[in-house]
Amino acid sequence: MSEIRIDPITGRHVIFSMERDNRPSDLWNVKAEECFHCKFEYMADCPFCLGNEDMTPPEIDRISNGENWDIRIVPNKYPALDQMEASKVKRIKTSSLFQKYSGIGTHEVIVESSKHNHNYFNMDKEHFTRFISAVLKRYKEIIKNDSIDFVSFFKNYQKLAGASLFHPHSQMIGLGSVPDFIRYEIEGSKKYYSNSKTCPYCDILRIELKKRERLVYENNEFAVISPFAPKYKYELWVLPKAHRPYFQEEQNETELSDALYRAFHMLYKTLGDFPFNLYLHGLPKSMKDSNPYYHYHFEINPRISGNAGFEIGTGIYINSIFPEEATKTLIENYSLNIERKG
Question: Which positions fall inside the DUF4921 domain (predicted)?
Fold first, then answer.
């Protein structure tokens, strides 16, 4: 029996059909693929490995660990946007129907470790915390730029999630405009606020922390939840418990890194070394009026099942596990692992 849920923020529809996992398939199996790169801490042809610094543009920042660096931030050698001054941005109006403007902004790479085979599942918590601190520090610097309105932090892990290089890295793109999906979230939040006079994210947290049906993990400052209508199997959100629309105002980076670290390790105990997309949604600088009803958050999207014609053609996703069941599985598998270690 299928069930259709509606995302309370965006209004996006998600179909839940448990029978989908029973479909026969003779296509490539991700889990069966051998990871060649996992064997090596250093690769001579990798631009992000320790000792190959001349293969990247000059670094913007680094975090050192003794004589060597731990984390580097460099300009993307193949940026999605042109690095230009705001004064040079020109909106070109060719007609009332067709309009375009120059693509300018910033595009940077965070090299998350000097070790080629590091990932979120095998790096220690101290290193992960330093990485999150570096992300927050750089985010604050980029968003100060007068020509930047929104900063997109994201990570693609493994080829199925869009990664082109194996070495652990994530990216930041600074935009002078507001992305469409951020607008949809803000519009959905504003609509909810106009009726209830409360932030929908705060209300979601209040319900999840009370009922605990979809609460995966919490610490003093953050909660990890399975959203009510997730696009992907085992999708997780990480949100500050206090109402905070701007990521650049976050001061609890240790608690944030703890929540993200625990979320990834709980997923790992259930899914193994899985492909995923991690991204941050925060309030753009120009949308100050959205303060009362928007709430910054991270989303983790496991890419263990691909989007096909129906999802791409309609925008409606199909999920084969309810978030309540996913929550139970994540908690039980993680607890079982702790018991075994004990």
Answer: 123-332
H helix or E strand, kind and range, residue 222 = strand 222-225
Contact 14, 317 (CB under 8 A): yes
Q: Tell me the C-alpha distance between 90 and 92, whole Å.
A: 6
φ, ψ at 191 (rounded to 5°):
-60, -45
Strand order in the sheet with 222-225: 61-65, 68-75, 105-111, 169-175, 150-157, 276-281, 297-302, 236-240, 222-225, 215-218
Q: How would you classify residue 197: left for phi > 0, otherwise alpha for psi between -120 and 50, otherwise beta?
A: left
Residue 34: what are its φ and ψ, rounded to 5°?
-80, 135
pLDDT tens digits, 98-128: 777 677 789 999 999 999 999 999 999 999 9
Residues 6+ apart with CB under 8 A from 255: 219, 220, 221, 222
Q: State phi, psi for 225 to the nearest 5 degrees.
A: -130, 155
Measured distance between the N- and C-terminal CA atoms of the chain, rounded to whole angstroms: 40
- The single residue listed with the structure tokens 């040079």 is 88
Residue type at 227 in one-letter notation: P
Token digits of residue 287:
């949308």
Q: Which two tokens stand for residue 317?
A: 């996703």
Q: What is the CATH number of domain 3-21+45-83+101-341?
A: 3.30.428.10
Q: State how far the Cα of 269 lies from the Cα of 264, in Å rounded to an integer.
A: 9
Calculate Rg over the CA atoms of the chain. Answer: 21
Question: Within the chain, how many helices (H) and strands (E) appear?
Answer: 6, 15
Distance CA 249, CA 242 (A): 12
CA atoms within 13 A on the CB side of 83: 9
CA atoms of 108 and 44, how far apart (whole Å):
22
Work out the pLDDT band at 273, boundaries 50, 70, 90: very high
| pTM for this predicted structure | 0.90
CB neighbour burial string for 231-266, b if at least 16 within 10 angstroms, e if fewer: bbbbbbbbbbbebbbbbbebebbebbbbbbbbbbbb
Render 60-74 in DSSP notation, one character per residue.
SEEEEETTEEEEEEE
